[in-house]
Specification:
2 copies of one chain form a homodimer.
Chain A (H helix, E strand, L loop, with lengths): L1 H7 L3 H8 L2 H24 L5 H18 L3 H11 L1 H8 L8 H12 L8 H17 L1 H7 L4 H23 L5
The first copy, chain A, binds a DNA duplex (18 and 18 nucleotides) through helix 2.
DNA sequence: GTCTATATAGGGATAGAC
DNA sequence: GTCTATCCCTATATAGAC
């Protein structure tokens, strides 16, 4: 609380005056982060684009958002794992991640034999995993592969093109 | 410390007697977890298997290890992000993740035109991302896709086959 | 080595003046 | 609304008897 107050240029008493308690402050921060983040992601998920373009569009923009909020993912993950119930209470009146349209789109592509059969949920998780994971493993990746801060950012930026290529390569109907 | 002492069936004073400080206790726990984990992962990374089989072997066994230590990944990620310097000091005298052999193997496969050109580091990160990420996003995935605990574990187990299929589909030389 | 009792510090929270 | 001073509690850590 002291550190937060210092950074905000006020004192602890003021923090308590505004937010009543540390817990309430936390919830406010968390909610605020999500309020900003979720709508953007939903917009990407539900953009009106053909499947392959949508994957490219999603990954490119999602990674950009992640790079602007590089500490958010590990913050969210830590708190959610500490307190899984909080997720329910924080999201219950709000917009969640809306994956229905995207799932249907994937299933349609399978039916039309544009792509090989795949469970939409598995595909979506693969896509999100490849976007988010490197960001939260940042220090480990830098260590294992001997990257500088700059090299790491470069590495992530390359993934904007690399991940869609990787995914589309995998799912597109193979020539028989 | 009280909670740890209780679970260990001793008292706080004993904890301090053994470990000197909370910080030292933490380091001991962390080191212990890594000492157990890293050698197993290195073994999987350096198994003497052809590329595709190695990917299957790695993913299958890595996910099994993760399921046995389902809280470890988010614990490690949180602590490393809090304290990136600690990673260096904890690993400096120890075996790190050894990716050299695997990287060479991937490059060889590219040269022999067994697979499409790809940066080995990107491929390795993709693979690890798809394995670890769902485990640390567990509560969020359960919420978004309405899974029970049991359904989630089932979902992860399916990925033992799903991920290698997805990767190999992506990298294997396309028919021209 | 193991315990009880206690010192000490730090952080969340409030009282009360302005 | 904003500040200073202070309360209160908990958690780390130690002293010292056994």
């Amino acid at each position: 609380m002291q550190e937060i107050a210092d950074n905000a240029g006020i004192n602890k008493a003021m923090l308590h005056y505004y937010f009543r308690s540390k817990d309430k402050l936390f919830d406010a921060v968390f909610e605020d982060a999500l309020k900003d983040f979720l709508p953007k992601v939903n917009e990407l998920l539900n953009a009106e684009l053909p499947l392959f373009e949508k994957i490219e569009h999603f990954v490119e923009n999602y990674i950009s958002i992640l790079l602007e909020n590089i500490y958010l993912p590990s913050f969210i993950i830590y708190e959610i794992n500490q307190n899984p119930e909080k997720l329910t209470s924080l999201l219950k009146n709000k917009k969640d991640l809306h994956t229905e349209i995207f799932k249907r789109q994937i299933n349609d592509a399978v039916k039309k034999k544009l792509i090989d059969p795949i469970d939409p949920v598995q595909l979506i998780i693969n896509m999100i995993a490849m976007c988010i994971f490197p960001v939260i493993w940042k220090p480990i990746i830098m260590k294992i592969f001997g990257m500088s801060e700059k090299a790491f950012i470069e590495f992530i930026k390359l993934r904007k093109k690399e991940i869609p290529r990787f995914i589309i390569n995998s799912i597109k109907k193979s020539v028989k």
